[in-house]
Amino acid sequence: MPDDLHDIPVLLLSAARALVDGIDSRVREAGFTDIRPAHGFAFARISGAGATVTELAEHLEITKQAASQMAEELIRKGYLKRGPHPADARARLLTLTERGNACTEAATAAANATLRPLATALTPGQIAALRTALLHLAEPGRIRPVW
Question: Which parts of the sequence belong to the HTH marR-type domain (predicted)?
Answer without folding.
Answer: 5-139
